[in-house]
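Data card: per-record layout.
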Amino acid sequence: MTPRTTPRPSRPQMSVEEFEELARRSPEMVRLEFILGKVQVKPVPDGVHGAIVMWLLEQCMQRLPDHRLYPEQGLKVEKYRRGRARPDGTLAPIDHFVLQGEWAAPDGVLMTVEVTSRDPDTDMRDRVEKPDGYAAAGIPVYLLVDRETHAVTVHAEPEGGSYRSITTRSFGAVVELPDPVGITLETQKLKDYAD
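The structure for this 195-residue chain is written out next.
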């Protein structure tokens, strides 16, 4: 499967510094990201979205006791770290983000996780723009839980701004998360969240 890519806009809407100031001043209920030079509003998750993230958090804690899946940790992504994303989950060692501030460097991150939402931008954001940004930042694994297709997609082997390995399995299948994550997920539980 060949990954889809999107052309980078010729001119960003604003500088990274201007975005960070805007994000700092936005109300708590609004979660902003800066992907491919565009400000994006991340949808507020619904109950199913939250349940999936909690299920993944528990799986990671059981299998990797020295790591945590941090919800909504701000990361510097894309080439030269010019983007800002808030993955639904970021797998890293315990206390990895202490003293890193709101937007942490991706160094040491093993995996990012996104769970699709019921909004019109999810296709571009979670299936195209986020994988490209995470790959460009060198994050080894990107896990997409796709509620629309009832499938889990594992992106691995980042190289040149995209992931060379992309594997998709239906909810219920056994999913291998490659090194450096190195765990297996039994995704039968995700069938309970299919809507």
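Known properties of this structure: The mean pLDDT is 86. Residues 45-193 form a domain with the tt1808, chain A fold (CATH 3.90.1570.10).

See the next section for split statistics.
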